[in-house]
C-alpha cells in the first residue's frame, strides 16, 4: 500500500507529491492525461503572483501583504475566506526558493505583459517548463507516476479515504490528495450550471475552454455526492474574453485579447455594455469572459485604432482591419448605423487628459453610459482593428470546502486523511473575479500544505499499524 496517493497532474498535484515525498512518504501520482498532455491547466500558465516587501530577484519594488489582500478583496467583491487568502498571500512570499530547488527558473516580466513586473514572477519557459521541471524532480525523488489513469470513483469509510478506482482497478492508500481541477471541460455540467437565459439561449453552448480537456469534474461530482462540503458558485469561473476563432480546448494564453482597456467593446447589437477602463488590465481581464457570456449570442467585438498598436501584447491571429469605421462594422457583421452612433457618442464623450496606460490616468468620458473611467481616447486614427470575442473558461470555482490544513470537510468536520488542493478548492479564496497569477499562488500554497498534511497523516497511520503488528507479535 502506498502512503500518499495524489490524484491530478498539474501544479498543485506536483507540489503535493514533492512535499509528501520530501517528508518521507511513498507517493503515487495519477494523471488522467497522456504524458504529452500532462500538467493540466498549469501548462498554459506564465507566472505566480508574489507578495514581497522589497525588490527580490525578478520582482521590482515592493508588493506588501496588505496591497495583495486589497487587490484580492476588490476583484472578489469580498467573496473570499480572509484566513485562507492571507495564508496564500504569505506563502507566495517564500515559495520561490523551494520551486528553484525543484528545477523551476524565473525571468523578469516581459515588456507589455500586463504591468506585472512588480507583482508577478514569470516562469522561464512558461508553465510547460515548470510542469516538466516538477515531473523530473518527482521522478528523481522516487515518486511513482502513472499517465492515462483517470480515477472515476473514490471509496470512503465515513469521511476517511480508503481507495481510488480506475475502472475495475482498486488503488488503496493511507492518505489522498485530490488535485484534479474543476469541471470546466464537462460541457453538460456547464450547460446545467448556466441554464437557459431570458432570450432562450443556452450560454454555455458558446463557451470555449482555454485549458485542458481532461478537467471533467468527475471526482468533484463524486465527492459532493459523498457529502463533502461544497464551496463556491457553479457559474463563477476564471473566464476571459478570447478570440472567437480559438479551439474548443487548450487554446491557452495565446487566444486572449489584451487590448480591451485601450479601445471599446460592443455586443452584436453594436452597443457598449461595460467600462473598458475600470482598472488595470491584470485586475480586470478575467471579468470580461463573464461579461461577454451575458451578451446576446455570447459574442462581442473589441475595437481599437492605430494609437493603441504597440501598447499591448498582440494576439496570435490578426483581427479585422479597415481604413474606415463603417468598413470595419461591415467586416464584423455589425449594423453600420448603430455602430457609428455608438462610436460617435463615445468619441464625443472622451475627455482626454494625460494619457498613460501604466497608471490610472485622467482620460475619461462624460455624458455617455457606460462610462470609460481611464484611458479613454477617441477611436479616430486609421487603420482600425476589430477582434471578435467569445467567453473562454479557464477553470470553475465550484469546489470543496477546506481549511488551513487542506482537509476536505464533511458536515463541517475535516477528514483526517483526505486533502484537496488547486482549482478543486480555489473557490475558498476566489468566490468571483480574478487577478493575474493568483491561481498559481493558490495551487502552490495549498499543494504544498496538502502534501505535508497527507504525509503526516499517512506516516502516523503507518506507525500505528506497525505498532499494532508488534503488539500482536
Automatic annotation (TrEMBL):
It holds the Pfam family FAD_binding_2. GO terms for molecular function: oxidoreductase activity. Keywords: FAD, Flavoprotein, Oxidoreductase. Its cofactor is FAD. The keyword Cytoplasm does not apply. The keyword Flavoprotein applies. InterPro entries: CobZ, FAD-dep_OxRdtase_2_FAD-bd, FAD-oxidoreductase_2, FAD/NAD-bd_sf, Succ_DH/fumarate_Rdtase_cat_sf. Residues 3-430 form the FAD-dependent oxidoreductase 2 FAD-binding domain. It comes from the Bacteria. This is Tricarballylate dehydrogenase. It comes from Sphaerotilus sulfidivorans. The lineage of its organism: Bacteria, Pseudomonadati, Pseudomonadota, Betaproteobacteria, Burkholderiales.
